[in-house]
Design a protein that fits this description.
Blueprint: E1 8-13, E2 16-21, E3 25-26, H1 29-44, E4 50-54, E5 60-61, H2 63-78, E6 82-86, H3 90-98, H4 101-104, E7 106-108, H5 111-116
Parallel strand pairs: 2-4, 3-5, 4-6, 6-7
Antiparallel strand pairs: 1-2
Helix pairs in contact: 1-2
Length: 122
């Protein structure tokens, strides 16, 4: 089977998994399932996962993508970790506010600010 290209870029920053999206539009259900599966695999590979999902460059997000974020958040918390979101453009942030997901997620305006909040930086 051919190796598929990942729809996310993941960097390890001192124990924080920083996730960025390859695509500007996170709408395709197959891609969203793939992103979700990759995130779950990475989160399950570490104890107390600290995850930062940076939305810089993302212009559109489907409700299926929001569902995946909720699942990823639950798994991260269950494993004793934290999930933070950053760099969400105003039009997408409005959806988080309308759906009250801004209360569920810790959202920072910049990745640097989100990283500060993890508190395990040395």
């Amino acid at each position: 089977m051919a190796q598929e290209t990942s729809r996310i870029l993941v960097t390890d920053l001192d124990g924080v998994l920083r996730v960025e999206f390859v695509d500007r539009d996170i709408l395709d259900e197959a891609s969203i399932r793939k992103i979700g599966a990759e995130l779950v695999r990475r989160i399950e590979a570490v104890a107390n996962p600290h995850v930062l999902i940076c939305f810089r460059g993302v212009e559109h997000l489907s409700s299926a993508a929001l569902g995946t974020l909720i699942t990823v958040n639950s798994l991260t918390k269950k494993r004793g970790g934290q999930l933070r979101l950053s760099d969400i453009r105003p039009s997408i942030l409005e959806v988080f506010t309308i759906t009250k997901l801004d209360k569920l997620f810790h959202i920072s305006d910049t990745a640097a600010r989100a990283l500060e909040g993890f508190g395990n930086k040395g």
